Amino acid sequence: MLSRSKSSISEQKLVFYFLLLLIPFIMLLAFHIVLFGILYLSSLLLHVYKRKNLLKGDYSSKLWDNGRQMVICLWDLYGKLWHGYELHGVENIPEGPGLIVYYHGATPIDYLYFLARLCNQKGRLCHSVADHFTFKIPGIKLLLDVFGVMHGGREECVQILKNGHLLGVSPGGVREAFFSDENYNLLWGNRKGFAQVAIDAKVPIIPMFTQNLREGYRTLGKIWSFRWLYEYTRLPVVPLYGGFPVKFRTYIGDPIPYDPNVSAAELAEKAKTAIQSLRDRHQKTPGNILRALLERFDKHQKDD
Question: Which residues are in the Phospholipid/glycerol acyltransferase domain (predicted)?
């Protein structure tokens, strides 16, 4: 009898330790289920709207406004409930065109919140430049088209700006998403194409940074094998985890005005310095998940 009791206790311990080992995988799975669930719900809403109103193409048409508004409300509500999302400095966005340059977290979910809040507050749609693998995600093409997401070249970006639109871009892209960390280092390399776009279109650059972004969502980018595999294949194979309901505050800095006497390299450096300044002002580094969670209960707004 005693032997059976000990055996039962040992089995319970094994089950307990097995469940502990599963926690990271459960967190990883739950994060992806929620994120892709909202993504596909957004796409479904637009497909239903398209069919109901017999719409075809011309995604810039006002006929799509109500459909866009449904998706915008969905993402704005999610950001408000799960991250207590706040947007500060929206008055720094000019009435005309501008190139919004932002730090790329493990996911661009803060950027999605920004797009929704900007449209709700200002009634403005911001076009976006995304990595090519975004367009390989099945079932979201309509969503990308309706919200002006593209993997365009320099000429297309310039034309969008010359047409009076806002355009968002993250120079760090996928590499910054996967391999930056809780110190929020900008991994831009020598990229300055975005700066040349701003110069060619004669528009200001508007820097943007989101507080606690890395505490909400993180990657396993510090594991050397994932870094090696990405650099060798360029495949987005670095696992993401998180989905922690930490406080998100997006800060928009002062615009960097167009100056014909500034080169693309100099302008890129100015933009980088501006984002680092926003980071240093609003983000404690290294980031801490517990501190970021507690900030959900902090009623005192950070200095703008």
Answer: 98-213
Asked if the structure places residue 2 within a domain, the reply is no
* 8: amino acid identity, one letter: S
Active site residue 104: yes
From CA 180, how far away is CA 176, in angstroms rounded? 5
pTM as predicted: 0.89
Domains identified in the chain, total number = 1
DSSP code of 303?
P
Asked if residue 303 is part of any domain, the answer here is no
Q: Which residues pair with 29 in a beta bridge?
A: none
User: What CATH number has the domain bearing residue 232?
Assistant: 3.40.1130
- Secondary element (H or E) of residue 71: helix 65-83
Nearest of 215, 207, 250 to residue 88 by alpha carbon: 250
Per-residue pLDDT of the chain (304 residues; tens, 9 = 90+): 545 555 555 666 666 666 566 666 666 667 778 888 999 999 999 999 999 999 988 898 899 999 999 999 999 999 999 999 999 999 999 999 999 999 999 999 999 999 999 999 999 999 999 998 889 889 999 999 999 999 878 999 999 999 999 999 999 999 999 999 999 999 999 999 999 999 999 999 999 999 999 999 999 888 888 888 888 887 778 888 888 999 999 999 999 999 999 999 999 999 999 999 999 999 999 999 999 999 998 765 554 4
**Domain presence at residue 3:** no
